[in-house]
Design brief:
heterodimer, A: alpha+beta, three-stranded antiparallel beta sheet, B: alpha+beta, eight-stranded antiparallel beta sheet, elongated
C-alpha cells in the first residue's frame, strides 16, 4: 500500500517535470532558433514477489512469476534539433542556417559556444560581427572601415562593399567589393548532448562528441541564408497535446493516491 | 474461525498488491513503449477438512470436504498489445508495428525494447534512452551522415546508402501441427525495468512487423480500464475488511456469550 503511494507520488513528480519542460517550450515559442525539449519516461525495476504477494528477500527462491513495478522516472530530456521555420527579415545582418550546423562564438572567458541564432550586429569599434549577447563570431568576421553593405553567400563567403574616402579631403572615392572572410559551420555527432548555456548558446560536452567544421553547403552542413532568421521549432499543437496528456496523467496519479489512502483507512478500521 | 480471519487478511494483502500493480500502470501512462501489467489474484490450493467428531483426526479419517485457504497475487503478466503510435517527426524515433522488439546491448547481455526513441552518442552510434547501443544485424549501428531514413523492414539508410538493418526479434511462432505449446511473448520476454525486456532464450528474427520512422509507440495503458480495475480492487479490499469485522463479531460472541453462566 505504501508502495503504491510511492509509485503514484513518483508519477506526480515526473508529470510535474514534464509540465515544467512544456511550459519552458511554450515560453520560448517566439525565441529565435530555440530548440524544444521533450521529456522521456521509463519504468523502474521490478520487485519479485512470492505467491502471497510480499516482496522476496534478496537471494530468496522465486516461487512465482509475480512482479510489481516500482514506479516511473525521467529517462532523458531530449533536445530536439529539428529545423525551425525560416522567416525573412530582410536585414542583411540576419543569418539563418538552413540545415545542420551551428555558428561558433567566442565567449568572454575564451571558450567557445555554439548557436543557431544568427541575429548578428556589428561592433562599432572593431567591426567584428557579434551576437546579441556581445560575443564575437569565430572565426572572426571583421568588416573593414567604410563598409556600407555586405553579402553572405549560401556557402558562407562574406563580401563587403566598402566606400573608401580620400585622405584629408574625406571625399568618397567610389565603392569596391572586398572579400572579408568565410563563415563556417560546426557540427556534433550528437547535438542532443550539448549543454544549454541560455541566451541561445550551447556548449560542447563529452557526450556531444568531437566538433567538425565545414563551409555551409558542404556535405552534411546547411546553407547560410542571409536576411532570414530561424524561428523556434516549438509546435504549439504538439505542446498543447503534451500538456493535456501530462495533466491527465497527473490527475490519474492523484486519483491513485486517493484510492490507496482510502484503502489504508479501511485497514485502519479493522480493530474495533 | 481463525482460518477465515487469515483468508480475509490474505485477501486484503492480495488486493493491496494488485493495487500496487495498477498504480504502477497509471504512473507509466505516458511512458513510451510501456506495456501494462495485469495482476491476477489466485486462490491457494484447497485444503481437505477432516471431521473432528469423536477421536482426533488421523491420516485415515475421511475428509468431509475441501476449503479454500485464501488468495494471493498470482502471476503478473504484461500485456503485449500494441500501444498507439504517436508521430513525433524525430528522425531517430522509430516504432514497431507488430509484436516484436528492438535489440540493445547492455552490460548484462542483450535486452529488448519497444521504446524506439533513440539518439546518438558522442561517437555517432545509435543508442536508446538508457545510453545502451542499439543493435543492427552487424552489431552497433553507426550513423555517419545527415539524413537517416528507415524503411518498413527496418533497413537503415544514411544519406541514401544502406548502413544496416535493425535487429528486430520476436517469439518464434510455432510451426506445423501437433506443436505442443505455442510460446507467447509474455512467456519468453520478461520486464527488467527501464523499458527493457530480457528473454528466456535467444529470440528469433521477427517477421510480419513494420518499422515506422518519426513515430514512437505510446504506453498501452488504458485509463478507463485501469480506473475500473482500481475501483474493483478497492471494493474487494473493503469486502475483505468487512469479512474480518464479521469474524471479529462472531469470535466475540463465541468468547463472551457462548460460555456465559447465569
Amino acid at each position: 500500500m505504501i508502495r503504491s503511494l510511492n509509485i503514484s507520488t513518483m508519477g506526480l513528480q515526473v508529470q510535474q517535470f514534464n509540465m515544467d519542460a512544456i511550459a519552458n517550450n511554450l515560453a520560448n515559442i517566439n525565441t529565435t532558433a530555440y530548440k524544444r525539449q521533450a521529456v522521456g519516461f521509463k519504468d523502474l525495476l521490478y520487485t519479485k514477489t512470492d505467491l502471497f504477494g510480499t516482496p522476496l528477500l534478496p537471494g530468496a527462491a522465486v516461487t512465482s512469476q509475480s512482479q510489481i513495478g516500482k514506479g516511473v522516472a525521467i529517462s532523458q530530456i531530449r533536445q530536439i534539433f529539428d529545423q525551425g521555420p525560416l522567416a525573412e527579415t530582410g536585414q542583411e545582418l540576419d543569418l539563418a542556417i538552413d540545415g545542420d550546423g551551428f555558428f561558433q562564438v567566442k565567449l568572454a572567458d575564451g571558450t567557445f559556444a555554439h548557436t543557431r541564432d544568427g541575429t548578428f550586429s556589428i561592433d562599432g569599434a572593431s567591426g567584428n560581427l557579434i551576437t546579441p549577447g556581445g560575443n564575437m563570431l569565430d572565426p572572426a568576421i571583421i568588416l573593414p572601415q567604410g563598409t556600407v553593405s555586405f553579402k553572405v553567400s549560401e556557402d558562407g563567403k562574406v563580401t563587403a562593399t566598402v566606400v573608401k574616402t580620400a585622405e584629408g579631403s574625406g571625399e568618397p572615392m567610389g565603392a569596391t567589393e572586398e572579400e572579408v572572410g568565410q563563415i563556417n559551420l560546426f557540427k556534433f555527432p550528437n547535438p542532443e548532448g550539448l549543454l544549454r548555456l541560455g541566451n541561445n548558446l550551447y556548449a560542447a560536452t563529452e557526450v556531444s562528441g568531437a566538433v567538425t567544421t565545414g563551409a555551409p553547403g558542404a556535405a552534411g552542413f546547411g546553407l547560410a541564408k542571409q536576411g532570414f532568421l530561424e524561428g523556434s521549432n516549438v509546435n504549439l499543437t504538439d505542446e498543447m497535446v503534451n500538456m493535456m496528456l501530462a495533466l491527465k496523467a497527473y490527475q490519474v496519479n492523484s486519483k491513485a493516491i486517493m484510492n490507496s489512502d482510502n484503502m489504508l483507512s479501511i485497514a485502519n478500521q479493522i480493530p474495533k | 474461525m481463525i482460518r477465515g480471519l487469515y483468508a480475509s487478511a490474505l485477501g486484503m494483502l492480495a488486493q493491496m498488491n494488485k493495487n500496487d500493480v495498477i498504480a504502477n500502470n497509471l504512473a507509466n501512462v505516458n511512458t513510451n513503449g510501456y506495456k501494462r501489467d495485469a495482476a491476477s489474484v489466485v486462490s491457494f490450493s484447497l485444503a481437505p477438512i477432516k471431521s473432528v467428531e469423536g477421536s482426533a483426526p488421523s491420516a485415515q479419517t475421511p475428509s468431509v470436504g475441501y476449503l479454500g485457504m485464501g488468495v494471493g497475487l498470482g502471476k503478473t503478466v504484461f500485456d503485449p498489445t500494441q500501444g498507439a503510435l504517436r508521430q513525433t517527426g524525430g528522425e531517430l524515433d522509430f516504432a514497431i508495428s507488430g509484436e516484436a522488439f528492438f535489440t540493445v546491448q547492455t552490460p548484462s547481455g542483450n535486452m529488448y525494447t519497444r521504446n524506439g526513441s533513440f539518439s546518438l552518442d558522442s561517437t555517432g552510434q545509435l543508442v536508446d534512452g538508457n545510453g545502451y547501443l542499439v543493435l543492427g544485424q552487424d552489431g552497433p549501428i553507426k550513423i555517419e551522415g545527415s539524413e537517416v531514413v528507415a524503411d518498413l523492414l527496418g533497413n537503415i539508410y544514411v544519406d541514401g546508402v544502406k548502413k544496416d538493418t535493425f535487429k528486430i526479434v520476436a517469439v518464434e511462432k510455432a510451426e506445423g501441427e501437433g506443436q505442443a505449446k505455442a510460446l507467447k511473448t509474455q512467456d519468453v520476454f520478461k520486464k527488467e525495468g527501464n523499458g527493457l525486456f530480457s528473454a528466456a532464450s535467444e529470440p528469433a528474427a521477427a517477421t510480419g512487423f513494420q518499422v515506422v520512422q518519426g513515430t514512437v509507440e505510446t504506453s498501452n495503458v488504458d485509463l478507463a480500464r485501469e480506473m475500473t480495475e482500481m475501483i474493483a480492487t478497492f471494493r474487494a479490499y473493503e469486502a475483505n475488511q468487512q469479512a474480518i469485522s464479521s469474524h471479529n463479531e462472531t469470535l466475540g460472541k463465541a468468547v463472551n456469550e457462548v460460555g456465559r453462566l447465569r
